[in-house]
């Protein structure tokens, strides 16, 4: 017979930690900006590859919004402000 002993460990995560890492930068569709502008801005601000930025632009166009980046609020805030300054519609959820 083979016996094994596995210790059960429980990790606790504070609500604050969950909230900090659980934020999403949402980009919304508009009738003003071109695909090229959105793609270039996502590459510049969010450090997306061209393919990632293009996919996000397509999703935004057809679905109305897209989660373009996840992370802590502190990490996403400057990105959100940069998207807004570029004339895009975005918010952190």
Automatic annotation (TrEMBL):
Gene3D superfamilies attached to this UniProt entry: 3.30.1390.10
A Pfam family: ClpS
Signal peptide (from-to): none
SUPFAM superfamilies (alphabetical): ClpS-like
Ranges where the Adaptor protein ClpS core domain occurs: 24-84
InterPro entries per the UniProt record, alphabetical: ClpS_core, Ribosomal_bL12_C/ClpS-like
Superkingdom, taxonomy of origin: Bacteria
GO biological process, one term: protein catabolic process
Protein name: Adaptor protein ClpS core domain-containing protein
């Amino acid at each position: 017979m083979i016996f094994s002993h596995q210790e059960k460990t429980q990790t606790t995560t504070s609500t604050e930690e969950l909230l900090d890492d659980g934020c999403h930068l949402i980009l919304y569709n508009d009738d003003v900006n071109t695909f090229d502008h959105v793609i270039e801005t996502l590459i510049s601000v969010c450090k997306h590859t061209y393919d990632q930025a293009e996919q996000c632009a397509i999703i935004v166009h057809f679905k109305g919004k897209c989660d373009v980046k996840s992370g802590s609020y502190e990490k996403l805030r400057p990105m959100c402000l940069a998207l807004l300054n570029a004339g895009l519609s975005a918010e952190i959820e």
